[in-house]
Design brief:
binds zinc ion
């Protein structure tokens, strides 16, 4: 499958690492890991340039990985929550529901009090989309699907994100080679989408002193096996609990919503109208984790190759030197 952007290229360009450093929602896991292993890792890192070593992620890579997994998973959660809100509140959907909840997810996920700085989690979600793009010609099934083409979804989501803060996402736009003249319409696209969503949601938004009757809850099924590491990141971040809490406080829910993380045998996510629940498959979360770790491993392999070549060159030069004397 042809890919328009590769994760390794984005990592090499520093795009994934940069926004992550500004992360306010730095997961506890990253902090703990830094406390316990920080020094040993720092030592290994300074050696990294000259010594050949086995693959082991640096602290920076671990933090970037966490932000990537969390950012992409969070977008999916908001997308599915979008379906739940459309259903619960009987919101009018003019156009395709899948596109509508993509834009709702972006609106809900973008921070309100942003002052020109990009949000690392949503930047990671945009990059996650970029990695999955294929340059293959779409099939009839893809055109008929309830979802727009991945390319369209990616550009639409990007435009809203960029439109919310052109300064904050300028680097992202440049790296992703977004067409400059099209970028100009993104701020008004974002403003219109934002206004219209909050207008539509207005009657269901909780006022001051509102006591929630129903809650959004999070439940974690076992992530044993392949998804163990990804599952650990999601659980330990406690991000989804705080999202659930803020959803509970923001809306006058008519029925409870449980965000279920569970194994489904497929890398996907669903809204189940019968139960009103949202399911996020561990396999999907794991695909973000795997993609990123795979990219780090590829970078590591390249580094090791270069080191080997360097060592060989040095040894050869030394031999030649010894031969002379
Ligand atoms: Zn959907």
């Amino acid at each position: 499958m042809g890919r328009l952007f590769t994760m390794a290229a984005l990592l090499a360009a520093g795009l994934l690492a940069a926004p992550v450093q500004a992360a306010e929602t730095k997961p506890d896991t990253a902090k703990k890991a830094a406390e316990t292993k920080g020094e040993a890792k720092a030592g290994a890192k300074s050696d990294g340039g000259t010594k050949r070593r086995k693959f082991e992620m640096t602290e920076d890579q671990r933090e970037s990985l966490e932000a990537f997994v969390l950012g992409n998973t969070l977008f999916v959660v908001f997308h599915e929550i979008g379906h739940a809100l459309v259903d619960q509140f009987n919101l009018p959907v003019l156009g395709r529901e899948e596109d509508a909840v993509d834009s709702l997810a972006a609106i809900l996920m973008l921070p309100e009090d942003e002052e020109g700085e990009g949000d690392p989690l949503i930047a990671n979600a945009v990059l996650g989309w970029a990695f999955t793009l294929s340059d293959e010609t779409p099939t009839a099934e893809a055109y008929m699907d309830e979802h727009s083409l991945d390319q369209q979804r990616f550009y639409q989501i990007f435009c809203l994100v960029y439109g919310s803060s052109p300064k904050g996402y300028a680097d992202l736009a440049e790296y992703l080679e977004m067409p400059k003249d099209k970028l100009k319409r993104c701020p008004s696209q974002y403003a219109q989408t934002y206004d219209n969503w909050w207008k539509a949601l207005g009657p269901d938004v909780a006022g001051k002193g509102f006591k929630p009757k129903h809650k959004v809850k999070v439940s974690y099924g076992s992530a044993k096996g392949d998804a163990r590491d990804a599952g650990k990141i999601v659980r330990e971040a406690k991000l989804f609990e705080s999202v659930a809490e803020s959803l509970t406080e923001t809306f006058r829910l008519r029925r409870p919503i449980t965000i279920r993380f569970e194994k489904c045998g497929i890398a996907n996510a669903f809204y189940r109208p019968e139960e009103g629940d949202v399911t996020i498959c561990w396999e999907l979360v794991d695909s973000y984790h795997d993609g990123m770790v795979g990219a780090y491993k590829a970078i590591h392999r390249e580094e090791q190759k270069a080191l080997k070549a360097e060592e060989r060159k040095k040894a050869k030069a030394l031999k030649a030197e010894q031969g002379k004397s």
